Amino acid sequence: MTKSKFLSYVVNLIAAAAVFLAFHLLFSGGVVSRSYRDLFTLGCIYSIAAVSLNLSTGLLGELCLGHAGFMSVGAYTSALITISFDKPGDMPILLLSLVIGGLLAALSGIIVGIPALRLRGDYLAITTLAFGEIVKVIVRALKITGGGQPMTGISLTTNYTLSYWILIITIIIIYTLIRSRHGRAILSIREDDIAAEASGVAVTRYKLLAFSLSAFFAGVAGGLYAHYQGVLEPQFFDYNQSINFMVMVVLGGIGSLTGSVISAFFLTLLPEILRGLAVYRTLIYSVVLVLLMLYRPEGLLGQKELSQRLFARLLGRNGLRTSPQSGVGGSSASPQENIPVSGTAERKADSAVSDRLGTSTGAPEEALERKWKGRR
Amino acid sequence: MALLEIKDLTLRFGGLTAVDNVSFSVEDKSITGLIGQNGAGKTTVFNLLTYVYQPNSGQIFLDGKEMKGKKPHQAVTQGLTRTFQNIRLFRNMPVIDNVKVGCLQQGKYSVASGIFRLPSYWKEEKETHNKALELLDVFDLVPYADHYAASLPYGQQRKLEICRALATKPRVLLLDEPAAGMNPSETEELMSTIDRIRQYFEIAVLLIEHDMKLVMGICEKIVVLNYGCVIAEGTPEEIKNNEEVINAYLGYEV
């Protein structure tokens, strides 16, 4: 780990903590009302769902319309666990139940994924849509989940601190995954699965990895939601909700994690902000969506991430590479600064590389030859 | 013994025999051309070699070992990597990441060490980065390392695709019409690219091509396919003067 990378981690953590502190002061100081505090919590929960959907849809490139189904699995599992412990408000038990709920959601993701991920595009979308409906029907049929009745008696343990930090952890995990060799494999499947397969990527395995991880976080979000709402109804997790998450992902920018967070908060807050307008509320909501898609079809952030680099670029500081998808932690392999493209400069860059490779500029070829005649 | 040996390979699509008892071999460290009319079954042979299709009968031997697999990525593991007739790059990924995807199978660190960025992650990522830069350097692509692959000109995209294939450390590189859609100067550049492959990597190359100047210029050996059958096999000189090949494919000079 280089020093600058370590520094950027610290900066990011401080930024995350600062944002939290700001909200914490607002809430505890009584500046904003309780209902906004709850909205913040809900925004965090929806963000977790949207960010995780972005992993399967924006980064893996598979259209998934059953995300609320995974959330439902996590929500009911987690609620049943905390109820069976019968210790309302106990944080460790909640955390445990969240993890188990997530794991179960991931498991259902694998079960659906093994057959479904062989399908492409629209077919996968329909299959996952069906999955969401199946979960709903199963929940209605089971006695333990209350049958057709809402499930009640879930302790209201979820608070904004917990939701916020789980959101941060979710973003970090997905972000670092995407910038590892496994993440590059996942992205390559989105770009061209045939070429990925031909380059040695075990496509099915990586699809399952991304899909189940996405389901895991959806399950965690579901668990948080259960302990936020206190009541669970099967129809809350229907395809409308799945599409809601999809809207968040598309609006925020497919492939941009921070974009998903921004749009999740935006879409959670928007109905509340417009509450005064009564019946025109849904109208304005739709108009806002249509306008955004018309004038910014790539989503709020496109594929970019809200990051130090983006800020630095906005402030007009030069010398930073516009490398694609450079984000919070900085890409693992430090991009070369300012590589000139023109003729003579090209050669300079070349020799810079040879220097870095520890080969003398005079005979880089020999060194290369030695290196690449290895396999046998 | 030849590095890659294909024995009596047959593939039928319903009533059509696309590849009919095809046998030929590719010597190590040599360039072999596979030519023939459109629809002769050249690309199908590639698809059989990389497990896109399973043959109805016949065997493939790499270095004396029979190749068996179900998925194209297994062919890469075994040492056969291909490029495509219509360039297939990871267009919205940086050039260098395209190459790094090719390095995937040589990677060792687990998903968890990737997520938590354990020391193995840092060490290997650095190695991969340097390795990718080296490869790009061979093909003069280093200045474009951080550009999107889609932004490269056509000829460079082809080079990047070859570069990505070489990153998988193949023993046989399969090039499917590398000169397709190229103008004469780009074709010239491609020939020098292939020369560099020969010079730096010491691997066998099997290439499908319609550009006779390129094929005759660089191949040590040429295999001619016609309606799924091998009709001739030999040096460029032999092929040029082979009556059957002239009739079926090359045509007479007017």
Task: Describe the protein's architecture and organization.
- The complex is a heterodimer of chains A (376) and B (254).
- Chain A is mostly helical and 376 residues long.
- Chain A has 2 domains: 27-303, ABC transporter involved in vitamin B12 uptake, BtuC; 340-375, no CATH class.
- Chain A has helices at 3-28, 34-59, 67-85, 91-116, 122-141, 160-178, 181-191, 193-198, 203-229, 239-252, 257-273, 280-295, 308-314, 343-356, 364-372.
- With 254 residues, chain B is of the alpha/beta class.
- In chain B, the strands form 2 sheets. Chain B has a 6-stranded mixed sheet, with helices on both faces.
- In chain B, helix 3 crosses helix 5 (119-138).
- The N and C termini of chain B lie far apart (41 Å).
- The mean pLDDT of chain B is 92.
- At the A-B interface, helix 6, helix 7, helix 8, helix 9 and helix 14 of A face helix 2, helix 3, helix 4, helix 5 and helix 6 of B.
